[in-house]
Design goal:
mainly alpha, 2 strands, 75% helix, Tripartite tricarboxylate transporter permease, membrane, DUF112_TM
């Protein structure tokens, strides 16, 4: 009898320790996702790589479920909170580069807080609406994976063609898309040279920072825009628009979350397509809902791809795949809790608008610029600075020839297209 109760106590002890580790891991993940979301230029993949690098002691502290919860919670929370710097600091995360203009448009109209809240609402919509797709993808798509892999390159080719054809200036759009594509092929082809303090770094950090972040910072330092007083009087978007835009974004994010080589930035580029090619006329609120929904849905459906076919679509999924995978229901539950926490943190962050607006934007731009250059060097070394400089030169062109900067996404789309069509190998 004593042996029976001793065994029961040991089982219960392990169970409650596992639960405690999972709860602590989830809290740690939300905190890390908040930090990576607020700090410009820091992607969730970077934090996930750090967690994977120190997984040994973390496994002892939190257990496998706790560490998995930290990675998933960090990834989902990041997709919410990164709306804050994208709106007020003008330095986008790679997944939110195309939401900068609409967010800034609202900010310059005095609705910066609303822009952040709309983005948070879009992320919630994306999470909720992608759950049915999650189930469908898990059941239907695994047997079709071979055909999907074969057709990805053709899909990207069609998507790129649509972006160029529907632009206001197809010639310049094609030139920017092509040059940025060549730069992307070069950067990814020689990514093994991007050796920083922590080993080989993610070359996409200096590449996308130079294309989308540094040009905006340089422009803001040269000509300081007077930001009007910010006011919040509710969300000026109808419920049906939230549902429709959220559904569009969720579907786009779900597709790129499953397809190899795509990112949320690719989905957002497709969401920006207009028949008249005028990105400036895109409805700001609806587009923010759609892009935020795409970012969150992409993160969640990346989990489905990992569990269903063993494919790792992001750095966070690579880190998660290196662990003993917990049950799928546990991971989805953690993602749901992180989504609720991320929404609350983002709404709270939007209330800091008056403080942010009192800070000199030129000073903020200068500090962030120095920070990003330092990040590129720390994580990618001298090669990262070379890529950053070249990408900045290319990223300045759209502003000079008056074409949307979305065509710089060729830096990602062209390499993936050539790789999936078996033209090049990295």
């Amino acid at each position: 009898m004593d042996e029976y109760w001793t065994a029961r106590v040991n089982i219960l002890s392990r169970r409650y320790c596992g639960m405690l580790g999972a709860v602590v891991g989830c809290v740690v993940g939300v905190v890390l996702g908040t930090i990576s979301g607020i700090v410009p230029g820091v992607h969730s993949n970077t934090v996930a790589g750090f967690l994977a690098g120190v997984s040994g002691p973390l496994l002892v502290l939190f257990g496998p479920e706790g560490l998995a919860a930290a990675i998933v919670a960090m990834m989902v929370t990041h997709t919410f909170v990164d709306a804050v710097p994208s709106t007020f600091l003008g330095v986008p995360d790679p997944d939110t580069v195309l939401s900068v203009l609409p967010a800034h448009r609202l900010c310059l109209a005095g609705h910066g807080e609303e822009a952040v809240r709309v983005s948070a609402l879009g992320s919630v919509a994306g999470f909720v609406l992608c759950l049915p797709l999650f189930v469908v993808f898990m059941l239907v798509l695994p047997p079709m994976q071979g055909y999907i892999d074969w057709g990805v390159g053709l899909v990207i080719l069609v998507a790129a063609g649509l972006l160029v054809v529907f632009s206001r200036s197809p010639g310049w759009a094609f030139a920017v898309f092509g040059v940025s594509g060549v730069l992307g092929v070069f950067s990814l082809g020689y990514a093994h040279f991007s050796v920083g303090v922590f080993g080989v770094g993610e070359v996409l950090l200096p590449l996308l920072t130079g294309l989308f972040g540094v040009p905006v910072l340089l422009l803001s330092m040269r000509s300081v825009v007077e930001v009007p007083p910010q006011r919040f009087s509710g969300l000026l978007i109808e419920r049906r628009e939230v549902i429709w835009s959220g559904l569009r974004g969720a579907v786009a994010g779900a597709v790129v979350g499953w397809l190899p080589g795509f990112s949320s930035g690719t989905a957002n580029a497709l969401l920006a397509i207009r028949r008249d090619g005028d990105f400036e006329r895109v409805d700001a609120r609806g587009y923010l809902v759609a892009t935020s929904a795409a970012n969150t849905a992409n993160a969640v459906l990346g989990i489905a791809a990992l569990y269903a076919v063993g494919r790792m679509r992001s750095g966070a999924m690579v880190a998660l795949g290196s662990l003993e995978l917990p049950s799928l229901s546990f991971v989805v539950l953690v993602a749901g809790v992180a989504a609720l926490c991320g929404y609350g943190v983002t709404v709270a962050g939007s209330r800091c608008v008056p403080v942010l607006m009192r800070v000199s934007q030129r000073l903020v731009a200068g500090v962030v610029l120095v920070f990003l250059v330092g990040m590129s060097f720390v994580f990618c070394g001298p090669f990262g600075l070379l890529v950053l400089a070249a990408a900045t030169l290319v990223g300045m062109v759209p502003g000079l020839v008056d074409v949307p900067r979305i065509f710089c996404m060729g830096a990602v789309m062209v390499p993936v297209m050539l790789f999936t069509l078996d033209v090049i190998r990295f």
